[in-house]
């Protein structure tokens, strides 16, 4: 078999209802390119029929590859495992839920062939709830400010990477990471294009509110120390303000004398500062926790077995 020119990477977790429709649309697109390709699925510890359906496809789809995880390690670990096994000159990530049309893939390949090494995407007419769209907008703006990156849509996983960028990502051994942002740090000539977006085919989103918050913490603390610097600056400003407030209270006592008014105001100010301190401790704890995860040197994921690879 010829070496693949394009590798399609698809993480899958409980996607039994989407796999057949996905392959029915993905295979004609890839075969229409007229170039050798491979499709790498990573089963992220699915508890439904996802794994058995993918195994059943292997005999009839020679381009299909399958990685079985020993448990649920998360979307980004599933992508990283497939990156290490991929061999294409162009590597494209794609979700299995059909929200990003496979028919957009040739456009991403064309951008890489123009000389770009990372092709990001922006979801056009996004078919998500108002809450998810608003939260995504806030995260995009905040992350760009904190990391200095220029990405319009961090949440869209339909992206293309040149082999050089993928190789650099494979050399990283971080316990937690956010692949689009990590790729951006290695990109010399990135670009973005608008792509279509559809409602999820079957099943539910795997990102609960907690997992979205967790992912965004990984994104902000994994690629920047700006949150720590902002907290240090806030501490300095708070200290200066508290000294000024103490001087004001001392002068007021000399002028007006002892008084008990304003006790509740002082409590409110005290609680506000205590809240800032607790937030800061949590922020420092986030960085310390990441250090703790790294120094343990535990494997990022465990592969039970692989299928379809030579």
Automatic annotation (TrEMBL):
Chain coiled-coil ranges: none
Molecular function in Gene Ontology: transaminase activity; undecaprenyl-phosphate 4-deoxy-4-formamido-L-arabinose transferase activity
GO BP of this protein: lipopolysaccharide biosynthetic process
GO terms for cellular component: plasma membrane
Transmembrane segments: 230-251, 263-288
Domain Glycosyltransferase 2-like: 7-168
Keyword check for Lyase: no
Alphabetic keyword roster: Aminotransferase, Cell membrane, Glycosyltransferase, Lipopolysaccharide biosynthesis, Membrane, Transferase, Transmembrane, Transmembrane helix
Record's protein name: UDP-4-amino-4-deoxy-L-arabinose-oxoglutarate aminotransferase
Source lineage: Bacteria, Pseudomonadati, Thermodesulfobacteriota, Desulfuromonadia, Geobacterales
């Amino acid at each position: 078999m010829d070496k693949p020119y394009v590798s399609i990477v698809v993480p899958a977790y409980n996607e039994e209802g989407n796999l057949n429709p996905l392959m029915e649309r993905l295979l004609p697109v890839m075969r229409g390119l007229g170039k050798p390709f491979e499709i790498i699925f990573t089963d992220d510890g699915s508890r439904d029929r996802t794994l058995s359906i993918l195994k059943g496809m292997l005999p009839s789809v020679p381009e299909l590859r399958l990685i079985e995880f020993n448990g649920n390690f998360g979307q980004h670990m599933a992508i990283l495992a497939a990156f290490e096994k991929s061999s294409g000159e162009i590597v494209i990530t794609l979700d299995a839920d059909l929200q990003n049309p496979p028919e957009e893939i040739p456009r991403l390949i064309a951008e890489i062939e123009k000389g770009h090494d990372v092709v990001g995407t922006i979801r056009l007419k996004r078919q998500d709830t108002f809450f998810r769209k608003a939260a995504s907008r806030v995260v995009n703006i905040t992350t760009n400010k904190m990391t200095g990156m220029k990405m319009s849509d961090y949440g869209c996983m339909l992206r293309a990477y040149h082999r050089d960028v993928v190789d650099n990502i494979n050399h990283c051994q971080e316990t937690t990471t956010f692949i689009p942002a990590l790729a951006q740090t290695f990109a010399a000539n990135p670009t973005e294009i608008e792509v279509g977006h559809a409602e999820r085919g079957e099943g539910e989103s795997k990102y609960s509110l907690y997992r979205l918050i967790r992912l965004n913490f990984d994104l902000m603390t994994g690629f920047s120390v700006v949150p720590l610097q902002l907290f240090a600056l806030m501490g300095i400003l708070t200290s200066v303000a508290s000294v000024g407030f103490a001087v004001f209270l001392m002068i007021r006592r000399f002028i007006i004398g002892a008084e008990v008014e304003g006790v509740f105001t002082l409590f409110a100010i005290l609680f506000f500062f205590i809240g800032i301190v607790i937030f800061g401790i949590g922020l420092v704890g986030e960085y310390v926790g990441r250090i703790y995860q790294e120094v343990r040197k535990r494997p990022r994921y465990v592969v039970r077995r692989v299928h379809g690879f030579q």
